[in-house]
Amino acid sequence: MVFDFLMTDDQLKLRDEARDMAKSVPRDYILDMDADKIKYPKEFMQECGRRNLLGLRVPKEYGGRGLKWEDDIIAAEEICVNGYMFGCAWGVTGDVVAEALMSFGNEEQKKKYLTPICRGEKYAAECLTEPRGGSDFFGATTTARRDGDDFILNGQKRFIVGGEGADFFLVYAKTDPEARSDQSLTCFIVDRDMGVRTEYLYGLMGCRGGGTARVVFRDVRVPKENVVGEINGAAKVFYPMMIPERLGTAAMTIGAARPALEIATDYSTKRKAFGTAIKDFEAVSFKVADAVMKLDACRSLMYTTARAIDSGTVSSGRCRRMVSEGKKFVTEQCWDIANLAMQVMGGIGYTDVYPIEKILRDLRLSMIWVGTNEIMSLITQHEWYRERAAEKKDARRRDSENDCRAAFEADEKIYE
Q1: Which of 60, 209, 270, 360 could be cross-linked to 338 through a Cys-Cys bond (beta carbons 3.0 to 4.6 Å apart)?
Q2: How far apart, in whole angstroms, are the C-alpha atoms of residue 66 and residue 43?
Q3: Three-state SS at 77
Q4: Taking the mean position of all CA atoms in its chain, how far away is CA 303?
Q5: E strand or H helix that includes residue 199
């Protein structure tokens, strides 16, 4: 890894642990996931738990390591080398759901769910997307009606990673249909044995074997003790969860794309045409150079963003912008890396003789899930305009607008 010079000794050790974990997964296991013979990587998750590689940010008292985001993204890259869906399953349980419970769960919920997550004994899924839409979170139609001390849950979620295989679900449901949209939802922990039904029915283009399913709730009774945070206060849970979802997704994408570059590089040193290795042709080697540059830029942005969040000194708005632009930039650049790798390899890259075609199929998801890249642009521009408005109030900053010859030309700067 080119960024190892930034890592501490403990981080290098963590990277090597995650790298060993990835290397230990049998080839047939990866192939069976892609063939949908394995519907959820339970054995992989169990082994991650055994090696204490799940819930890295969870405090030690609950079985985690109490690490930072910078540490987490180091592990995420290595975990995803076997395929993007390995990281998705790993991250949903160990990062997203665990983070929600760490930040908003009560002590009883933490003890009941966090410890088995870290041990690889329980797996979770986050239920956001519904048939009527994904990006419109507050337009959710799944309902939770109060019935004494319980809630009766009805509705369905779809495209839920880990839905098939999860022992419990983090579910957002409407509890006050009359309230303002951002004050109408509640977040629940819903155990599978409460009556949750899952349907593994999607013919996915890639990222198979991660338990992506439809999750159906029909009069599922959930005790009030399973409310995460406050009733009608799911927005307070949802917004901070965008950091583990999108920061983690970007870091995982780097790991999933990296093998494409490595394979294409090695291929170009062995494959000969016109009497020489094809790496000697700039039409080939420049594509490799572009892919290397893109991967380095992705890592730079992700490490900077992780450090900003870990510092606790960067405003929430700027962190939100950095995470959003990082998710968009990294996923799009990694998609380009896979395409460049396939172009370097030519026709053989379009076959299953090499895993490039699988990597390409898998990476297409990265630009869609946990918020489409269009939503990332929406958030980025919104936060940037706010930042720029604040900057203009700082008298210490230079106003560069007037640094041109005709800056004060009459009747030229007309805005209405």
Answers
A1: 360
A2: 24
A3: helix
A4: 15
A5: strand 197-199
At position 145, the amino acid (one-letter code) is R
Q: What residue type is 302 in one-letter code?
A: M
Largest CA distance in the chain: 80
Q: Which domains does the chain have, with CATH numbers?
A: 4-122 (1.10.540.10), 127-232 (2.40.110.10), 235-391 (1.20.140.10)
The phi, psi pair for 397, rounded to 5°, reads -90, 145
**CB–CB of 126/170 below 8 Å?**
yes
Give the residue among 57, 52, 46 at the shortest CA–CA distance from 17: 52
Q: Give 68-125 pLDDT, tens digit per residue.
A: 999 999 999 999 999 999 999 999 999 999 999 999 999 999 999 999 999 999 999 9
For residues 168 and 415, give the distance between their C-alpha atoms in angstroms, rounded to a whole number: 55
DSSP string, 290-315: HHHHHHHHHHHHHHHHHHHHHHS-S-
Burial of 357 by CB count in 10 Å (0-12 exposed, 13-18 middle, 19+ buried)?
Answer: middle
Q: What pLDDT is stored for residue 294 in this prediction?
A: 97
Q: Looking at this protein, which amino acid is placed at residue 133? A: G
What is the distance in angstroms between the CA of the first residue and the CA of the last residue of the chain? 53
Across the 416 residues of the chain, what is the mean pLDDT of every consecutive 10-residue run? 83 97 98 96 98 97 96 96 96 95 96 96 94 76 94 95 96 91 92 94 90 96 96 90 87 97 98 96 98 96 95 93 96 98 97 97 94 94 96 92 91 87
Collapse the DSSP code of 186 into the 3-class scheme (helix H, G, I; strand E, B; otherwise coil) and give the result: strand
Query: pTM here?
Result: 0.93
Which DSSP string do the residues of 124-182 spell out, in sequence order? Answer: EEEE--BTTBSS-GGG---EEEEETTEEEEEEEEEEETTTTT-SEEEEEEES-TTS-GG
- Please identify every residue annotated as catalytic: 245
Enumerate residues 6+ apart whose C-beta is below 8 A from 223.
149, 150, 151
